[in-house]
Design goal:
- The protein is mainly alpha-helical.
- It has three domains: 124 residues, Rossmann fold (3-Layer(aba) Sandwich); 162 residues, Serine Threonine Protein Phosphatase 5, Tetratricopeptide repeat (Alpha Horseshoe), CATH 1.25.40.80; 182 residues, DNA Cyclobutane Dipyrimidine Photolyase, subunit A, domain 3 (Orthogonal Bundle), CATH 1.10.579.10.
- It is built from 22 helices and seven strands.
- Helix 8 packs across helix 11.
- The longest helix has 25 residues.
- It is globular, with a radius of gyration of 24 Å.
- It starts with a strand and ends with a helix.
- Bound molecules: flavin-adenine dinucleotide and ligand DLZ.
Amino acid sequence: MPTLRLVLGDQLSSSLSSLADWQEGDMILMCEVLEEARYVRHHKKKLAFVFSAMRHFAEGLERDGKAVRYVRLDEPDNTGNFTGELRRALASGTFDQVVITEPGEWRVMEMIHSWQDCLDLPVLVREDTRFLASLGRFERWADGKKQLRMEYFYREMRRETGYLMDGDQPEGGQWNFDKDNRRKLPKDLVLPQRLSFVPDATTRDVMALVEARFKDHFGDLEPFGMPVTRNDALQVLEHFVDVCLPQFGDYQDAMAEGEAFLFHSTVSAALNCGLLEPCEVCDAAQTAYEAGHAPLNAVEGFIRQILGWREYVRGLYWLKMPDYKDLNALEADRALPDFYWTGQTDMACLADAISTTKTHAYAHHIQRLMITGNFALLAGVAPDAINDWYMVVYADAYEWVELPNTHGMAIFADGGVMASKPYAASGAYIDRMSDHCAGCRYKVKEKAGPDACPFNYLYWDFVMRNEGRLKGNPRMGMIYRSLAKMAEERRAQIKSDTKSFFEKLDAGQDVARLSSQNDSA
Ligand code: FAD
Ligand code: DLZ
């Protein structure tokens, strides 16, 4: 039965379910299409990464003797979307069916359902088996639960997979070593060098394409050193385990001026497009623990990110979509400040996180959650605006993983489906976990007035503004008891500082405002 097998840009794994049972006469379709490059205006580095990884993967399939129809973005007859390319491929031969692995985004799943209606042959959607928990497994776990907390899902996954288990007990007698993982980075600590891959001819071609066709997109294309092949990605994993993993736990929540990666793995882009698989990443970490190379707090912390958070957000996305995206529990409606695109702000922590993002299409978790996410939460940025930003700027962004993290974890738009309380923090947290405040034009110790760190009054303004919505949350009890004791004058000062901050921001003062990258694009 000749089969057309469609492989998407984040399905670059030889174990892919849609490639199983390959037979002579079948054809694999891979296509670079404008619709995917533009449905959000992806960072230039992400575009080059995805196209280069796709081209290398197709070359590998061909080397294995498989027939591949690879459509490049600049081919004259490229229709610019999956539906058009599927129709063209079907017209080019005789096929009895289309096979595809389920996609990572609701939007694309809807497209696939429309093909099932409009094409004259069966379109079979296979399970994406590259995750450690199937969607059915997650649904069974979630069924009947009032609260869907990651920690409990993670424990079940530990028991089920056997990672870091000692019989039926967690290795070291605890499920979670987070309390050991909150160290500030010592000044004299030498940070590891990171691997960077010299672009080959394929990557150079796509870089030229991106520069020509997507010049107005956010971000720096050069220097480009991302892992675009499976072999590159395996080297990144090996380097992380050898050099960074032992200290991953200690400094997992730390931030440092000008330091993008610290001890993080930087495997997310490769993982999410399929160049690595989660089980091999967890296996590598567990092996390092068993060999005595990395301590338990580091290995448990790392495995929890993959086996816990990554699997959990995927399950939650598919369980809650499509309504999830429209939730706006805090009725946030502010436009995204322009400095998210330009990095031009006097707030040193934000300027640093955005600069890293622009250069690398990467920021580590605490920058995403406690700097750019925290500011959006406190300022009340509209969910669509901040979700779009996170989808645009990171090379690892696909909606299944971006949306729960932003909508649920960072801005609490889901009203507590994912997090038990908002991750809101004042300047004191940022000062405790980073060295940003020392060089900042604002003073983190000042609570009021033009020199005070804006996170300080924005935090309390957020607490006051959302009192009706959050006061009943047991985890917010202490904060609202503090608010109850706050003098009326202090409350008025917070309101007035917040008002003048946003007036200045909107007028382009204080935090400089350049032309919006997004508007001009
Ligand atoms: P490490 O810190 O080394 O962690 C190892 C791996 O664990 C990551 O590669 C990733 O695969 C997984 N992981 C860690 N935390 C999470 C998490 N919260 N959810 C899912 N997987 C996790 N991650 C993405 O992959 N794509 C996104 O679009 C994305 N958007 C985010 C948006 C916000 C607002 C926040 C707060 C987090 C987001 N994350 C996203 C999660 C996390 O920040 C990134 O996975 C991580 O920073 C990637 O860097 P790393 O590979 O060095 O991760
Ligand atoms: C992210 C991306 C981009 C930029 N371009 C393509 C593309 O041209 N062709 C393709 O097959 N996939 C691309 N992708 C990845 C898809 O957007 C991704 O497969 C869907 O969002 C489903 O997760």
